[in-house]
Amino acid sequence: MLDPQSIPVLINTMTARARAAAHALAAAEDVTKARALHAAAAALRDHAAMILDANVEDVARASDNALSPALIDRLRLDAARLEATATGVAAVAALADPVGQVIDRTIRPNGLALSRVRVPIGVIGIVYESRPNVTADAAALCVRSGNAVILRGGSEAVASNRALHAALVEGLVAGGLPADAVQLVPTTDRAAVGAMLAADGAIDLIIPRGGKSLVARVQAEARVPVLAHLDGVNHVFVHASADPDMARAVVIDAKLRRTGVCGAMETLLIDRAWPHAAALLAALADAGCALRGDAAARALLPAITPAAPSDWDAEYLDSIAAVALVDGLGGALAHIARHGSHHTDAIVAEDERVAERFLAAVDSAIVLWNASTQFADGAEFGLGAEIGIATGRLHARGPVALEGLTTYKWIGRGTGQVRG
């Protein structure tokens, strides 16, 4: 355990090393970054036994500490998940390099040629909990977009994160990039988070990934710009025109495919005019989901637990869903506007006009028609991986991948123009 007084010095040292690495990354050629990430993916596979052993240690400790099954599921790695992580790193390597991409060009009346060109942000700080795959995803995305990254994982995954980080750095160095391109804070002391949040000018962007308390702390204390990933209070609205088989498939997948991911459905809204509501509720309950509903839902399925006011704002991350019957599209939109978290919301409907109104009216980062909310994932969007789902309205929104980790600069090419 580090002396708390030494933590600001530690973070200052790490940021200085990260800045130097960021300069090297910004100048690195596309082929170098891609080669280094392929080497990092290979290192994850080569060190799979070490990584999985470390994860067993973390999972055992989490069980001893009585973490919920959903949180343990987020923490757990197995051979398939680790292979998916390595595949994700390699997929990012195969993506087009965003650095240097020309966003647009214009020629002014005086002949001055202006262009906006993507450039790295610089030094990224990522504070996250539970999910060790974030270590690899964040490293890959930051390196590919030319940024150095400082990772501060949670205490739940400390052994897994250290093993993943060691393998990743081994691969990056073998591929020709500096080891300091990806650094892992060596302490889980909360003071390290505070030091990162205070590092204005040394860290260019902070990205929190975790529960409400973590994100709230980051937003309250940060003197560094924050790209927030808020909770996923996600809704599926089943309209009166919905096909019953499709509605059943979408709702069960949205809730139960993986309950611990941020794209999981937490509230089911059903149009009062839809005649298949009772069958859908029974199917969801039979699939293992505990339901908490309003009076209208409980009238259809008496076994449903009465919903408390807090249920409409809950991110359960478990096999639990709130359910309410609403008055058509207007009722669904009003409920989502009141209780949604601007993450991911979906409608199941055959009526295209209604669906398009829903897509236009819902103010969320991701809005879907006839598809599960579990598609809220960078890989499913063809982005290779994601740093998180941004729920704000500035800079980046939805799955944040390579473009979301760049900014731009203006470049002007003249022929001697002066303003006079």
Mean pLDDT: 95
Structural class of the helices, strands and pairings? alpha/beta
Number of strands: 16
What does the main sheet amount to? 7 strands, parallel
Low-confidence stretches: none
- Write down the overall geometry: globular
What does this protein structure show overall?
This protein is α/β, with parallel strands linked by helices and 420 residues long. Helices cover 42% and strands 19% of the residues. The chain has helices at 7-27, 30-46, 48-64, 69-75, 79-94, 133-144, 158-174, 190-197, 212-221, 244-256, 277-286, 295-300, 328-339, 352-361, and strands at 102-107, 113-120, 123-128, 148-152, 182-184, 205-209, 234-238, 265-271, 290-293, 305-306, 320-326, 344-348, 366-369, 388-390, 398-400, 406-413. The strands form four sheets. The chain has a seven-stranded parallel β-sheet with strand order 10-9-11-8-7-12-13, sandwiched between helices. Strands 5-4-3-6 form a four-stranded parallel β-sheet, with helices on both faces.
Labels describing this entry:
14 helices; 7-stranded parallel beta sheet; 420 residues; 4-stranded parallel beta sheet; single chain; 42% helix
Q: What are the SSEs and their pairings?
A:
Elements: H1 7-27, H2 30-46, H3 48-64, H4 69-75, H5 79-94, E1 102-107, E2 113-120, E3 123-128, H6 133-144, E4 148-152, H7 158-174, E5 182-184, H8 190-197, E6 205-209, H9 212-221, E7 234-238, H10 244-256, E8 265-271, H11 277-286, E9 290-293, H12 295-300, E10 305-306, E11 320-326, H13 328-339, E12 344-348, H14 352-361, E13 366-369, E14 388-390, E15 398-400, E16 406-413
Parallel strand pairs: 3-4, 3-6, 4-5, 7-8, 7-12, 8-11, 9-10, 9-11, 12-13
Antiparallel strand pairs: 1-2, 2-16, 14-15
